[in-house]
UniProtKB/TrEMBL annotation:
NCBIfam families: dnaG (TIGR01391)
Family indicated by similarity: Belongs to the DnaG primase family.
Record domain Toprim: where: 300-379
UniProt-recorded name of the protein: DNA primase
Note on cofactor: Binds 1 zinc ion per monomer.
Enzyme class: transferase
Cross-referenced PROSITE patterns: TOPRIM (PS50880)
Region forming the signal peptide: none
Record text about domains: Contains an N-terminal zinc-binding domain, a central core domain that contains the primase activity, and a C-terminal DnaB-binding domain.
Gene designation: dnaG
EC number: 2.7.7.101
Catalytic activity entry: ssDNA + n NTP = ssDNA/pppN(pN)n-1 hybrid + (n-1) diphosphate
SMART domains reported for this sequence: TOPRIM, ZnF_CHCC
Length: 642
């Protein structure tokens, strides 16, 4: 390959980048981007191993609910709002493309886009996901362990989890806790699967071990594993004398703990959870999501519990597609995660009053977010763990999870709980609550069913109930219209329709397509033509591509796209790379594109000069206007000769 750095400096693009973007800086940035950020390099063989072990369908399926149609998979694009799936994933080519917004790429660029990550961060995330250890090399060749911003926090939690597990399973100090778990129905397999452990009563055992391992104590306090003493002289363990349940993020990393006390002491909370930290946010974390995700995708159904112990109990009953919130309300982030991988949500909360209230909150929010939602109810005031212990796993699977209430039936049951329908006031309140809750949310058929049920239970005629429902819907319609009129002026401007492709767009895209896929052709074209592209972003990509060929020698649009940090430029590269081209007619297609772009460049120049000429005439600068007219005539002659 030619020395492209020298060629580029000799070309007319040199002045362009020196004046407008800083050419030397552009090349320097491109060099840095080839293997990520901060002048570090991940070995190419490692990157290739990560690519080969990452199936793009599985990866994107963790973010988007995909349905197979023919050879490809389709889902709702995660990069723009849409109601009809236009996001396609091709297993054969290991590529994704959105026909709506144009987003395209492979597994690495998908992570870069969805997580707003650099190349190195995306590779590190996929390496962790695939169980591949990576090392980076600095500019002087020194080996560096690659870590992210919070790696020390993750490492400390992994160390603590292993330590707690060892104490539970292999020490005399952990025997009491182990017997307690076994009596609760836990097998060793379950204990190991969920990484359950035991923390000693001693105040500083973990603290001292973390110090020996050279962890920074201020960071460990930030991680929530230790607490500073009141006098500021040192630290002590946050968790002491508790059964330890590790909390994992979506990638399976331990990011926190929930510790359950063994004693019945009322002086201490039954459960003690890690505080929120840079790696642990309750509104984002769903317990067991990393293990349930694959089974949820397969079944299309996810079961949501209030507490993580219910999820563990359900797993012992053979339910492998459940998750739980961590002592917090269900959030939009939680629901977005679930909606991407599941068609149906079954909510199962405790049977006490607090459980009913939680189930109603969860159900209302889920319905608002468009999830097909059902609610599994427990008798009495039982929680799932108690029900399974009392009636067995089969009864829980078949009678509770396998027989859930529809949203309508649940709301009716919820409103009826505290009512005595032999009392007139309770009847009126019951009807009001049901209509208030369900009127705007049901289909015509569901409304009819609701009216029939209310009539049968209360003795009120269906006609009267229909009239009341109609009044309620009319009142709501007026309120919604008023709200719409008030907010009309505050609404965001509508999204502009996608710009139609011009002949310049098509020519530049096809030209870039050939240059991305044919290094030898790039050599020949680069020698013969100093100017090719018209649009600035294509010229920028061309410079980066020249640097890429200088470094790697051979075409590889996957690798090249991964080196580009700018998402819009990366999108242009992938769109061009996936165009249909005729390799046998590559020279002719490229020449046609270059010829067309050259003509368009002259046309644009003529238009600019005509505008300048008119401005000169307005300023009575007739000499300048005459010079421009002569230049326009010469340009038109050259255009006619092309």
């Amino acid at each position: 390959m030619l020395n492209y750095t020298l060629l580029i400096y000799k070309s007319s693009l040199k002045n362009y980048f020196v004046e407008k973007a800083g050419f030397a800086e552009s090349i320097s940035n491109s060099v840095r981007e080839w293997n990520g950020d901060s002048m570090t390099k991940i070995p190419e063989e490692t990157i290739e191993e990560i690519r080969s072990k990452t199936d793009i369908v599985d990866l994107i399926g963790e973010y988007v609910q995909l349905t197979k149609r023919g050879k490809n998979y389709f889902g709702l694009c995660p990069f723009h709002g849409e109601s009809t799936p236009s996001f396609s994933v091709t297993e054969e080519k290991q590529l994704f493309h959105c026909f709506g917004c144009g987003a395209s790429g492979n597994a690495i660029t998908f992570v870069m886009d969805i997580e707003n990550a650099t190349f190195t961060e995306a590779v590190s995330k996929l390496a962790s996901r695939s169980g591949i250890a990576i090392e980076t090399f600095s500019a002087d060749g020194a080996v560096q362990k690659k870590s992210n911003e919070h790696q020390s926090l993750l490492d400390a939690h992994a160390f603590a989890a292993n330590f707690y597990s060892h104490l539970l399973l292999n020490t005399v100090e952990g025997e009491k806790a182990l017997h307690y778990l076994e009596n609760r129905g836990f097998t060793r397999e379950h204990i190991e699967k969920y990484g359950i452990g035991w923390s000693l009563e001693d105040r500083e055992t973990l603290t001292q071990l973390l110090q020996r391992k050279k962890f920074d104590m201020k960071e460990m306090e930030k991680a929530g594993l230790i607490i500073m003493k009141q006098d500021g002289t040192g630290y002590f363990d946050r968790f002491r004398g508790r059964i330890m349940f590790p909390l994992h993020d979506d990638n399976g990393n331990v990011v926190g703990f929930s510790g359950r006390r063994l004693s019945d002491s009322k002086e201490e909370a039954k459960y003690l959870n890690s505080p929120e930290t840079p790696i642990f946010e309750k509104s984002r974390l769903l317990y067991n999501f990393h293990q349930a995700r694959l089974n949820v995708r397969k079944s299309g159904k996810v079961i949501l519990f209030e507490g993580f112990m219910d999820t563990i109990a359900a797993e012992r009953a053979g339910i492998l597609n459940s998750v739980a919130v961590m002592g917090t309300s269900l959030s939009e982030t939680h629901l977005l995660k679930l909606k991407r991988i599941a068609n149906q949500l079954i909510i199962c909360c405790d049977g006490d009053d607090a459980g009913w209230e939680a189930a109603k909150r969860f159900a209302n929010l889920s319905i608002q977010k468009g999830l097909d939602t059902q609610i599994a109810l427990l008798p009495g005031k039982m929680d799932p763990d108690e029900y399974i212990a009392t009636f067995g796993g089969d009864a829980f699977v078949n009678k509770v999870i396998g027989n859930p209430y529809s949203y309508m039936s649940f709301i009716i049951a919820y409103a009826k709980r505290s009512k005595n329908l032999s009392h007139e006031n309770d009847v009126l309140q019951y009807i009001h609550e049901v209509l208030e809750e369900l009127a705007p949310k049901l289909s015509p058929i569901e409304k009819d069913l609701m009216i029939r049920q209310l009539s049968a239970e209360t003795g009120v005629s269906a006609e009267a109930l229909h009239e009341q429902l109609t009044k309620r819907l009319g009142k709501m319609a007026k309120q919604e219209k008023a709200q719409w009129q008030e907010s009309r002026l505050e609404q965001a401007a509508p999204i502009a329709a996608p710009r139609k492709m011009t002949s310049i767009d098509r020519a530049e895209r096809l030209l870039l397509c050939h240059l991305l896929n044919d290094g030898a052709l790039f050599d020949r074209v680069r020698q013969d033509h100093q100017e090719m592209f018209i649009r600035e972003d294509y010229s920028t990509i061309f410079v980066k591509l020249a640097g890429f060929y200088e470094q790697h020698g051979e075409p590889d649009f996957h690798r090249f796209a991964e080196t580009i940090e700018d998402r819009e430029l990366r999108k242009i590269v992938m769109e061009a790379a996936m165009m249909d081209r005729d390799p046998e007619s590559g020279e002719q297609e490229v020449n046609d594109c270059i010829h067309h772009l050259a003509k368009q460049r002259i046309i644009q120049k003529i238009e600019e000069m005509m505008h300048a000429s008119k401005e000169a005439e307005k300023m009575n600068d007739h000499t300048r206007a005459l010079e421009l007219a002569r230049e326009i005539i010469q340009l038109r002659k050259s255009l006619s000769a092309m």
